[in-house]
Amino acid sequence: MNKPTSRNAWAWIPSLYFAEGLPYVFVMTVSVIMYKRLDISNTDIALYTSWLYLPWIIKPLWSPIVDILKTKRYWIVSMQLVIGAALAGVAFTIPTGNFFQYTLAFFWLLAFSSATHDIAADGFYMLGLTNHEQAFFVGIRNTFYRVAMLTGQGLIVILAGQFELFTNNNFMAWKYTFLILVALFAILYLWHAFILPHPPADQKRGSKPVSKVFNDFVLTFISFFKKKGIWLGLVFILVFRLGEAQLVKLASPFLLDQPEQGGLGLSTSNIGFIYGTAGMIALTLGGILGGIAISKHGLKKWMFTMVVAMNLPNLAYVFLAYLQPQSLWVITSLVIIEQFGYGFGFTALTLYMIYLADGQHKTAHYALCTGFMALGMMLPGMASGWIQEVIGYQHFFIWVLVCAIPSFIVIRYLKYNPVFRIKGK
After folding, report:
1. Spelled out in words, what is the top-level CATH class assigned to the domain 1-207?
2. What are the residues whose beta carbons fall under 8 Å from the beta carbon of 35, sequence distance 6 or more?
3. pLDDT tens profile 69-127
4. Does pTM surpass 0.85?
5. Which of 3, 83, 202, 246 sees the fewest Cβ atoms within 10 Å?
6. Are 243 and 403 in contact, with CB atoms under 8 Å apart?
7. CATH number for region 230-412
């Protein structure tokens, strides 16, 4: 039986990028909320879940393996099966005595398989589509990746909150939630095993010896660090989200903690709506407007404003920590403002990394930039829970604002590619 070399891209692009986004949000966001509801301390939550960024930091190191062994289609389908198994591992170890250690081990498996899936899916996108189709579907893939974010941070967290109310047992509630995720990934696995095409370009393996691939990778890696202005650029990537990297780890715990602990005492379902739904929509809109602004006036003109947009809205959490309002609409409105600013400001980092990676090996160099970006989230995030528990939520959110200072210093010395300036400016 002949295997189809092509399929209607609408049949697999949306589902593939939905499947790519879900594990990331489970590891980075849902795990934080789950551990908070299962009474793990903020120090341990921030430290151990921040370590889970590591697979995305180092994924460029094993991307050559994905490229030379088997096919990208094989890696996609295999990793979706492993992701489903990891989710099952989380589900079945939640009710155990040492659930924190066991579930963390399965989250590590989930993180590594998700990062590997990212490599394969992005490569398959280029192999399975023509250049015209790639240009057409880039917006579609990004949209469904965002839909995955909304589903994970919003609907799944709301569902977990409803299970908490129904069962009156947080451990069983989160077990049921993850079992539903297992079923979801079983469906995605079966669908992609059937629907993904077998493009001829994805069949060519073994044309290069492993030693040649490794040598090429080393040369590409070295050439990245020889780029003009690379070290200042990497400092910028590392400090741009210094405050946000800490805020994102403690935002949900802050909203969940009781008022006597300095928090707002919201329910799990409240978090799913506020942070995962309304906040996620605001984040997306901010990113869209940020892209439009830079396309009209250039990155250099907007850089300062975008650093302000990334950091100043964090004042919303200072307000929430000091006044502890009980109105859900007040809380939601302030989180929307903060998330919109994050989305708008983050556009500057994305465009700057594209500039920094430009030239020969730009795909590999951009992957290295994203690795450093993940490192910039991991390191501050690891210490954030300890800092918060030492100084309290009120002073912690002021500290988050102070962490904006390095970004304002670094941008004074950045160089900009003329590609990101409008003509005549």
Report:
1. mainly alpha
2. 44, 45, 49, 100
3. 788 899 999 999 999 999 999 999 999 989 999 999 999 999 999 999 988 888 888 78
4. yes
5. 3
6. yes
7. 1.20.1250.20
